[in-house]
Design goal:
Layout (H helix, E strand, L loop, with lengths): L2 H20 L1 H8 L3 H22 L6 H18 L5 H13 L3 H16 L5 H24 L3 H25 L1 H8 L14 H23 L3 H22 L3 H4 L8 H16 L4
Length: 280
Amino acid sequence: MNAVELFDQTTLECSRLITQRYSTSFTLGIKTLDKKFHLPIYAVYGFVRYADEIVDTFHDQDKQSLLDRFRKDAYEAIEKKISLNPVLHAFQLIVNKYQIDKGLIEAFLHSMEMDLDFKTYNDSRYHEYIYGSAEVVGLMCLKVFCEGNDEMYQRLKDPACKLGAAFQKVNFLRDIKSDYEERGRVYFPGVDFKSFDKSVKKIIEDDIQKDFNDSLIGIEKLPDGAKLGVKVAYLYYQKLFDKIKGLSPEVITQERIRIPNSKKLTLLVGTYFGNKLGIS
């Protein structure tokens, strides 16, 4: 390994560390992907995680300035194919290798910027935000999984977007308390946090379940090296969603709902062996 390869490898491993620190469920899912996809998907996660941290965490900083700098540095890294920021260098490696459309990157960064300006969302902004914050991340990962096969990518785009939307909407339900109390945000259009009731919750749940259902056909058509990992993520979120559906509006507006790590591991093992035996 020469010096450049060592630098590249080290930055990719930084993104792996970020993923492991921030998301046990995402880390478990990546481990069920073919090994060739591990570092590329870690790199995508590292990029989106740090952008998200800018708008959600650093409350004593000028977030707009930080995000502007992050955007500028990201595009410069992609153009020049180098950055001394390990997260951005790892990301540009993957963007350039897999020809990830800059439009996807800009849509994502725009959604992060929306979090700086909007506290409540109408239908238009809600769908715009979900596309940029979740669907395009799924499309970035799909670009990696398709490895240059554009016909496959185009065929699986819509189901990938549906899956990303389902994940994000489940996150909105899971985090409805913290989003409102810590950030003053309510993502669901027309929803008043203080009058969140069973009828409103049911409408949201029906919409999420439709996204899950529409995404499943795409998962089954993914390349073998990607299918199991995406299925684990699907089943994890479906399990989390089922748990939320079984709780009252009062409970989910008072606490953040989680799946214990022990159950995540059980789900991972069960899905892995079920796949091997052809029963899941």
